[in-house]
User: Fold Branched chain amino acid aminotransferase from Marine Group III euryarchaeote CG-Epi1.
Amino acid sequence: MKPDEIDYDNLTFSFTETKSMYVSKCKLGEDWKKGQLIPFNDIKISPAATILNYGQGLFEGMKAYRTKNNEIIMFRPEENAKRAANGCLRLSMPEISESVFLDGVTNVVKDNIDYIPSTEKGALYVRPIIFGSGEGLGVAPSSDYTFMVYCSPVGPYFKGGLTPIKLIVTNDYHRAPLKGTGGVKAVGNYVPGMLPSGVAKKQGYAEVIYLDAAEEKYIEEVGAANFFAIFGNKLVTPNLTGSILPGITRDSVLFLAKNELNMDVEERRISIDEVMKADEIFCAGTAAIISPIGSIRYKDNKYNFSNGEVGKITNKLYNFLTDIQFGNRNDDYGWIKKL
Ligand code: PLP
Ligand code: COI
Assistant:
C-alpha cells in the first residue's frame, strides 16, 4: 500500500504492507553478515524448511515513533537484539549479532519512513524474524537460516487504547512449561494461545491470563504481555522463572517505578489469590504498551479493580514511559535511539 492510501486516523494492530523489507542469509556454523533491502514481497521457501515443519524460528517486536519535532526514534532496540541472540541459541540457530540485527531494523525503518504515523495516531511496528529456511526431514537444526525485517504502521493493540480491559484466567491451558521455550520469542509459543484467546474474545474478554504449568496457582503472563500488580506503594511482577518472556517494557516499568516513582519493586511469584487483593493491575509489552486491567474473571467469580477506571499509579507509569518512548521527555537513561 502507498503511504498516502493509509487511514492513519483509524489504525489498529493489524498488518499493512509497506515499501520494503530486509533480508540476510546465513549457513549453520557461519556468522551472520549484513543483508540488504528488497521490495516487500512474498518469499520462496521449500516445503521441507525446518520453520514450516518444526517451528525452528523466532520473532521480535519493536516500534519506531515519529516525535513532535518529526524525529524518528526507537526504544531500547539493543535489548531486542540481545533477546533475539539468546533465542537463536535456544532454538539451535546461528546467534544473530547486534550489528546485523540493528542494521536490518534501522534500514527498514529509514526506508519506510513515510509509513510512520505521528505518536498520537500510532507507531511503525517493526518485526524482525529469524528462521530455519533450509530443508530437513529429521528433527535437527537446518543447514540454512534467514533473517528478515518487515514493518507495518499500527494503532493500539487492545481496542480503546488506555481504557481498562477485561481478562479471564484460564484453567484449561498453559502458555509455557518451566524448562521449555517460554523465555524466548519462539514462534511455537504463540499458536497454542490462539485457541484460548479466540474463545475468550468471543466471550467478551480482551485476553487470557495464564497460570503456571506446575501448580496452576501463580500468574505467568497475559497473552503476549507481562503482568503487574500494585499494592499501595509496591509494584509486584512475576519473576523470570524461564517460562516467562523477559519483556523490555517490563524491565523499563520496573526501573521507572523504582527510580522515578520511588516504589518498592518485587519480582517474585504472585498467586492469583493474592492478585485479587491488588489496588491496581495492568499488563505491559511493546504492542500493549501499558494496558490497565479493569476486571478479571476467575472460575465463577468476577473481580473488579480501580472501580473499572485507570488506576492512579498505572496512569503515572503510562505517562512516564510513553513520554520517553514518544520523545516528549528527556532520555535520562540512554533508552532512545535516534535514526
Ligand atoms: N510476553 C510475551 C509472551 C510477549 O510476546 C511479549 C511481546 O514481546 C511480551 C511479554 C512483552 O515484551 P516486550 O515488552 O519486550 O515487548
Ligand atoms: C509485542 O508486544 O511486540 C509482541 O510481540 C506481541 C505480539 C505477539 C503481538
